[in-house]
Amino acid sequence: MTGDHHVIVCGFGRTGKNLCNLLESEHIGYLALELHPDVVHSAMLAGHRVEYGDATQLASLMSAGLARASAVVISYEDTPSALKVLALVQAHAPEVPVVVRTRDDHDLNHFREAGARDVVPEIFEASLSLASQTLHHIGIPARRVRRLVQSQRQTRYAGFKDDSNASSH
User: Which of 53, 162, 39 is nearest to 72 (CA)?
Assistant: First the structure.
């Protein structure tokens, strides 16, 4: 990949694809690594920047431009694999922030201890989004909804280590 300040997206499933679409809409460079050849082929035909590669292998991350990346996102749900990616990034580009998707907050501390800058537990975050939309539809002002959601995040993540990241989940 040419250029600097791109995001490496590990996985091009629904979550990775949605993230890449958002990055594209903001004119932010990215390169997604995906293990399923049919997904890579379809994505490339659709104009996405996706390559066949295993993010748990240093060669794939380096080929994707790890040394120049602005961030790495692990968009799939696989704790052992995510921990391998985190270890590689910590060993070879520790200044690059890594954001990890997880199903719930069960492994939050493990990911943070392994070097994740942020961990996004999808069940909890989906419940906050559902609550936010519901409150909006029943007439609660947007500012109040944002405060309520932020308060829930702070309360939920307060028990985990590295509280400096707690509010950013």
Answer: 53
CATH number (3.90.550.10, 3.30.300.70, 3.40.50.720, 3.40.190.10) of 1-102 reads: 3.40.50.720
Report the C-alpha gap between 159 and 98 in whole angstroms.
Answer: 21
DSSP category for residue 168: G
**How far apart are alpha carbons 105 and 100 in whole angstroms?**
11
CA nearest to 156, candidates 144, 166, 164, 146: 166
Provide Rg for the chain, Cα atoms. 17
In sequence order, which ranges of the chain are alpha helices (DSSP H)? Answer: 14-25, 37-45, 58-63, 79-92, 108-113, 122-137, 142-157
Domain locations along the chain: 1-102, 122-169
pLDDT digits (tens, 9 = 90+) for 129-164: 999 999 999 999 999 999 999 999 888 877 655 444
* Residue type (1 letter), 121: P
Residue-wise pLDDT for 97-126, tens only, equals 999 999 988 888 899 999 999 999 999 999
